[in-house]
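Fold it.
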Amino acid sequence: MILKQYYLGCLSQASYLIADEVSRRAVVVDPRRDVDEYLDDAAAAGLSIDLVVLTHVHADFIPGHTELAQRTGASIAMGEASPVSFPIRRLADGERIALGDAASGVALQVLSTPGHTPESITLAVFSHAEDAAPHAILTGDTLFLGDVGRPDLLGAAGRSSQDMAKDLYRSLRGKILPLPDSVLVYPGHGAGSACGKALSTDTVSTLGEQRRSNYALAPMSEDEFVGVVTHGLGAPPAYFAEEVAVNKAGHLPFDAELPVQHVDAATAMRHHQRLGYLLLDVRDDQVFAASHLRGAINVGLSGRFAEYAAAVIDTEQPVILIGSEEQCAEARTRLARVGIDLVAAQLSDLHELTGNPDLVVSSSRLTVRQAAAAIAGNPDLQVIDVRAPGEHAGGALPGAVNLNVTGLRSTLTQLDPSRPVLVHCQGGYRSMAAASLLEANGFSDVSDVLGGWAAWAKEHALA
């Protein structure tokens, strides 16, 4: 048996290839949108990808089922209750998918495990079809390592998070916990994902270890479970609703080889000002702060680029990328993973960002001491913390209001653009994204804190 995990750190997302080494038939589960790695590995091993399985309608990324189906002829399969508009093979609870010999070959069994979403499934992977227990389970967003999937991302489908949590309780107790401790657990996400609350940095575990360490699997009543899994859930990123809509309707294949038009600084600004194109500068926040096109928004490739770019970009707005050739190519692929396909052009001649003083500006960044003086001396100052609510609860700058950057585009109305704003995050990456978003939306006096909360806490610990 071949069972390979592909872990994408920038989205904290895991996908899988399972194959029978005799028949050479393979299945890919929850692929990312740039699918060359699966195809290359399959070709190297002489495998035929016959089926692509999605464990549920994803909210945080656009999976690559369309791309794999186009390039391999594979069928697309999902749980029986999946609310999608494109053709799929609907998988029934308990259904077996044989990849090899009916008695001794690799087989998958579908386990209906609603709770994160109504259609969520878990795939039990059997090394040999006649084995009494599976070798592994691919749990999608039902069971994470150290956590379980959020029950509150269903949105307008008409069911409460409490109702979904009850389904999740029954799925875990009825379908997953009866399995042996030795079964390997391969989740759909790891630490950093907004699809859970407290995910582990590990990417594989055993059911026995999860039984011992995962708070949601501890013995408790259904009502107790509902209470603990729904407690402390912050608002999901605003772009999740857009991702769900795309993933229900289906999408066109992404082609990374399509050329992107190159433009100069003057043309980029003209498109921005007259046609409403978004200028997305993907360079490091410190480089951006020194010199960038007026009106550009900065989301650097060094961090969780796709997640924060999706939070600040309207998917219907054409984008002009700003960065080196390599940076723009990488940014285009990573944007496609979250459904941002309208990359209209790129500005890669970075000398343009120093040779056009009429088009270029710099950002205001304050040291911790300068920030402290500004807070103490200006009662009109609006201080915002753009970290997640859990981070904010652990400490923030004096008077800071928590407006998570993942929802900032929809909460700008809570701020007064005529008053000065001071933005902070943990280290400076998210605060520059937020500050540039504010400036692009007409806020004229915006600064962020160099080093963020980490630098502030260190400075005041030494004081």
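The mean pLDDT is 93.
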